[in-house]
Amino acid sequence: MIAADEAAFRFVAGRPSVDFTGTLGKRWRNPPVERTPDPAALGRWFAEAGLTDRPVAVTTTALRQAYPLREALYRLMRVPVFGERPTTADLKLVNDWAARALPALALRADLTARLVEPTAEELLALLARDGVDLLGSPHADRLRECSSETCTLLYLDTSRAGSRRWCSMDVCGSRDKMSRYRRRVAAAED
């Protein structure tokens, strides 16, 4: 059983497609933390990510399609981070999803846009399109992996100097600073 804080959705990446890759956490662990283990969880993720006003009905088929898309996006986003080479299969999968129909948009009375009853598949296409837009832009070189030894989340570094180290200062940054402090105190006591 995974802890509730590990299973909680994390929205620290700066882009929906990058946050989507974080629905599989602690990738170094066996097994990693699957934050969308069932269709209802993916539907909640879409809503909590701000893609919809409410959870979307997700079929088991859509969930099974979401996992390979998420992993292809993750591997492609590692390309600018670690200088890895993209695979033809990952490029094809993401491009195929990005070419699909997107959800319809409508204006609310307050002149904000909303998606009109999107399907899970349309939202996956939207995430693929966001990933293509990011990876094909000059901002791709601002993709980073969290510096914490216990985190594998990717994020878009939007700091002015481009020197952000953690996915979240509140979580990983705080843990890292506390760990370094404890090591200094222990060393001083020795």
From TrEMBL:
Protein name: CGNR zinc finger domain-containing protein
Transmembrane segments: none
Domain Zinc finger CGNR: 142-184
Source taxon at top rank: Bacteria
SUPFAM superfamilies, A to Z: Jann2411-like
